[in-house]
Amino acid sequence: MSQIRAFLVAIGLLGAAAVSTQGIIEGFKLLQAALGYGDNLTITYIVGGALATFSYIVIAITYLHYRPVAIHAPLRRPTLREVGWVVGGIVVAFGVAILIEAIGAVLGAEGATNFATAAAVGNPMLVYGLLLVGNIVLIGPAEELLFRGVIQGRLRESFGPALAIGITSLGFAISHVPSYWIGGSDLFTLGVLFALLGIAAGGLILGTIYERTQNLIVVALIHGLINAVGVGITLVMLL
């Protein structure tokens, strides 16, 4: 019974994140239309996307208020071992991402367009410039708090770390489906499939590192830096 309850809680939290994200984005689109900026996806992403991401923090804190979960986030200077985990995690994550992308290319998968990529078409320097910082200060911490901290932490209590990591990583990938839908991608393509496989693999890496280090700040930093490096490479290519 406890495992069923934990699984349903995880689904409920994932559902809450999906509903809040979609609700905030669609609500902000209506506000934009009322103000005469209805077709500006860049504004939708920058403001609506930031609010949607912040809602992850609200969902996590709200759940923790009613049902505490052990979250390890020591506010101190990182140890040399933790710095090693950050560097190693980034290297492994990029290696796995490149491998998955290469397999996808061999099978004919084309690149999928997500919300950020579509929003950057109108003003790439602005969007990617903000993303460079936003990944580290908001996206990484918010997503890791909800997914690794709360969801994986709650599942760990009933399923143990291995299954908790697997279930959370699958949910983490599924939670990114709306981003590709908003970005205009056909969800039933190899491109989106391999993009989601890459995200799931990243979730497995982050979840494993969280269990090994017992430090949410470490995985939040890895998550933010991985994304920021990718954005930085894109910015350099645009210069």
UniProtKB/TrEMBL annotation:
<dbReference type="GO" id="GO:0080120">
    <property type="term" value="P:CAAX-box protein maturation"/>
</dbReference>
<feature type="transmembrane region" description="Helical">
    <location>
        <begin position="216"/>
        <end position="238"/>
    </location>
</feature>
<feature type="transmembrane region" description="Helical">
    <location>
        <begin position="187"/>
        <end position="209"/>
    </location>
</feature>
<feature type="transmembrane region" description="Helical">
    <location>
        <begin position="159"/>
        <end position="181"/>
    </location>
</feature>
<feature type="transmembrane region" description="Helical">
    <location>
        <begin position="127"/>
        <end position="147"/>
    </location>
</feature>
<dbReference type="InterPro" id="IPR003675">
    <property type="entry name" value="Rce1/LyrA-like_dom"/>
</dbReference>
<protein>
    <submittedName>
        <fullName>CPBP family intramembrane glutamic endopeptidase</fullName>
        <ecNumber>3.4.-.-</ecNumber>
    </submittedName>
</protein>
<keyword id="KW-0472">Membrane</keyword>
<keyword id="KW-0812">Transmembrane</keyword>
<feature type="transmembrane region" description="Helical">
    <location>
        <begin position="45"/>
        <end position="64"/>
    </location>
</feature>
<dbReference type="Pfam" id="PF02517">
    <property type="entry name" value="Rce1-like"/>
</dbReference>
<feature type="transmembrane region" description="Helical">
    <location>
        <begin position="85"/>
        <end position="107"/>
    </location>
</feature>
<keyword id="KW-1133">Transmembrane helix</keyword>
<feature type="domain" description="CAAX prenyl protease 2/Lysostaphin resistance protein A-like">
    <location>
        <begin position="130"/>
        <end position="229"/>
    </location>
</feature>
<dbReference type="GO" id="GO:0004175">
    <property type="term" value="F:endopeptidase activity"/>
</dbReference>
<keyword id="KW-0378">Hydrolase</keyword>
<dbReference type="InterPro" id="IPR052710">
    <property type="entry name" value="CAAX_protease"/>
</dbReference>
